[in-house]
Amino acid sequence: MWKFILSGCLLAAAAVAQADSLYNIRTYEAPDHTRVVFDTSGPTDAHMFALNKPERLVVDLRNTRPAANFNPDFSNVTGRRVQNIRMAKRGHDYRVVLDLVKPLTRKDFRLKPTSPYGHRLVIDLFDQTAPAQPPPSRTEARRDIVIAIDAGHGGEDPGAIGPNKVAEKQVVLSMARKLAALFDSAPGYRVVMVRKGDYYIPLRQRTRIAHDAQAHLFLSLHADAFKNSTVNGASVYMLSERGADSEVARFLAQEANRSDLIGGVSEVSLGDKDPYLKQTLTDLAMEGKRRQSSEIGVEVLGELNRVTKLHKKQVGHAGFVVLKAPDIPSLLVETGFISNPVEARRLNQAEHQGKITRAIYNGVVKYWRENPPPGTALVGLAPADADHRRRLEQGLLAAINAASEASGLGP
Ligand SMILES: [Zn+2]
């Protein structure tokens, strides 16, 4: 007993002497949850509890002090879920109170150091009502060609950082929005944006979103860095189960696959348990998917070749996790190398982004025009597709009116 008390006192004394530091608190808002991240000097012990009237979450970081340069930026707090964050010393602890707008479901987990981050405590606060899913069986949803556009990285995962601190996650989100606008204005196409803002989505969940939307194509946009800053040009990759076909491809896939470590994924949501990913297709279906990926990739490369230098003239192969959807043709477009100073500047320019996205769009549209997927608006008229029929009738009507006017008969 005597020995126990002694060692207890020593432990307490040691703990006080080595208080953890709180370096930063960061927030990200996703459509269905808000993430709050605490950057700490060690695997900080935290005690959390919720209070209501008004709703709030109290986080006591045990034996923790804010670091000298602690200066959190809460500009991402939009007031949708968290309306205020308050902080105060409380004995040896540091108390952080999140003032919430409504009751939220909490999931918290710790992450071990992964460059560029040290120890992190992550709290995800989810809406309690399920987000509205687009009804998958709507006629229009089945009949349009659905393009899933995935802006790489996001939130805690900035992706590659170029000169002047240009972050890949911002460049590719901007391009994804431009690309979406092109497809959305094209009849017969519909876009599903995998990432809509500055937050992180686990790699497996990205393919899952595309699957749930019954996407015909998954396009992941990146602008990564390479060790050698002279390397430049755009490239297009498809999945290889047997390793990469070049040193650059291997490096890019390794970096891309680190995203879940940097972006922060709780073990619960690790997608290996996802039955969708265990789905096995027949060799014939797999071969069909691979051939489509390859053929669309060739069209996209051909169009990119008109507007930018190509890093590779052929579709590259590497083990990108985000391309592992079993049933959807999937491509990863490296729009350029952000590690190359000249290319980084161009990638950040709206005009260049417009050229790149227009090229990707042209390549995809060219492919589907020549190979329309069965049952889509591009194939032809199906009696059930009222919307398509309406559009065609309007077109016919306009043509008849124009012909009548030309012949002087009136409408
Ligand atoms: Zn990337």
How is this structure best described in words?
The structure is a single chain. The chain has 411 residues and is an alpha/beta fold. The protein has eleven helices and 15 strands. The strands form three sheets. A six-stranded mixed beta sheet has the order 11-10-12-15-13-14, sandwiched between helices. Strands 5-1-2-9-8 form a five-stranded mixed beta sheet, with no helix packed on it. The chain has a four-stranded antiparallel beta sheet with strand order 3-4-7-6, with no helix packed on it. Helix 3 links the parallel strand 10 and strand 11. Zinc ion binds next to loops.
Outline:
This protein has helices at residues 2-17, 139-143, 168-184, 203-212, 247-257, 259-263, 275-278, 283-307, 341-347, 350-370, 386-407, and strands at residues 20-29, 33-40, 46-51, 56-61, 64-66, 82-90, 93-100, 105-111, 119-126, 145-151, 189-193, 217-222, 235-239, 316-318, 330-334. The chain is an alpha/beta fold.
Topology, element by element:
Layout: H1 2-17, E1 20-29, E2 33-40, E3 46-51, E4 56-61, E5 64-66, E6 82-90, E7 93-100, E8 105-111, E9 119-126, H2 139-143, E10 145-151, H3 168-184, E11 189-193, H4 203-212, E12 217-222, E13 235-239, H5 247-257, H6 259-263, H7 275-278, H8 283-307, E14 316-318, E15 330-334, H9 341-347, H10 350-370, H11 386-407
Parallel strand pairs: 1-5, 10-11, 10-12, 12-15, 13-14
Antiparallel strand pairs: 1-2, 2-9, 3-4, 4-7, 6-7, 8-9, 13-15
Bound molecules: zinc ion.
Residues 152-153, 159, 168, 222, 224, 256 line the site of zinc ion.
The named CATH superfamily of the largest domain: Zn-dependent exopeptidases
Total number of strands? 15
* Secondary-structure element string: HEEEEEEEEEHEHEHEEHHHHEEHHH
Q: What fold name goes in the CATH topology slot of the largest domain? A: Aminopeptidase
Q: How far apart are the first and last residues' alpha carbons, in Å?
A: 103 Å
The count of domains is: 2
